[in-house]
Amino acid sequence: MPIKLLLVEDYKLMRVGLKSLFEKQDGLEVTSEAENGNEAIEKFKKNHPDVTLMDIGLPDISGIEATKKILELNSGAKIIMLTSHLSENEVLESLQAGACAYVMKDINTDILKMIIKTIKDGAMWIDPLAVPILRDKSSTVVPQMKMSRAMFRKQHANLTQREYEVLKLVVDGKSNNEIAEELTISSHTAKAHVCNIIQKLVVDDRTQAAVKALKEGLV
To answer: What is the second-level CATH architecture of the domain 3-128?
Structure first.
């Protein structure tokens, strides 16, 4: 069964473009659309999408307010904030409102598809450009366990020093090729390190590894 999407975007050209994009992706289907926040709430109630792609800047209520209202209807709703702005307030308010992801609109198509699938399965995703905002704020957006680096290393002692270095770059949103270039290793070696990290942290993918590292205070 394809993942049912609700697409919330006030600009028709952008909405048509995104819908056309998803029509070419196996496993994804735009089953409803909305051009403002109140319409998004009604479409959510009527169509029960698996994942909602929510623009922040809408003409009536903001995407953040619409997110809050949708989650009041269904606390399990999966909402991705899809925006062209990187505002500290919008990042924090979006995640505090209950959004599962904060994604910039210029994101790679394949990565967006991956994000939608992992969000549907219960993951969380934060655009690498927004990570420093969360890292610098003592907020409860990404809950901290207040675990020291020493304690984290003790708990995950099976991670090598090199794997810690790779994990930090994964949190920064680096691809395997970029990790390889940064650490002067081959892409194959970088990929192997990432696979080892995923296995050792008992997560399903690099996104969940990055989120776990942030939650447990490693970076």
So the answer is: 3-Layer(aba) Sandwich (3.40)
pLDDT single digits (tens) 37-70: 999 999 999 999 999 999 999 999 999 999 999 9
Let me know: does 4 contact 31? Beta carbons within 8 Å. Answer: yes
**Would you list the domain boundaries of the chain?**
3-128, 149-215
CB 55 within 8 A of CB 40: no
CATH class of 149-215: mainly alpha
> 67 with 97: CB under 8 angstroms?
yes
- How far, in Å, CA of 75 to CA of 62, rounded? 19
* Region for 125 from its dihedrals, namely left if φ exceeds 0, alpha if ψ lies in -120 to 50, beta otherwise: beta
pTM: 0.66
